[in-house]
Amino acid sequence: xxxxxxxxxxxxxxxxxxxxxxxxxxxxxxxxxxxxxxxxxxxxxxxxxxxxxxxxxxxxxxxxxxxxxxxxxxxxxxxxxxxxxxxxxxxxxxx
Length: 95
Description:
two-stranded parallel sheet; Transposase_IS30-like; transposase activity; nucleic acid binding; globular; Transposase-Integrase; mainly alpha
């Protein structure tokens, strides 16, 4: 697992995550679902979704991407400064 990822990602309750148990089994990463009444938990999730859509528009067939392609997208996102992190990158915030 990429050491820059947190141990429990926070995801929305959308249908695309119906297989969250399979994800946890395959990766060993627990999934945390944001509380619908807690907008603070959802803000980063919504922003990350928006950033991912720049690279992977909704409906994109992920099987057309190699692991190297996906790793490159992750590296770009993990090395992008975020206002919520005091303009540090996610990679810097867990270092």
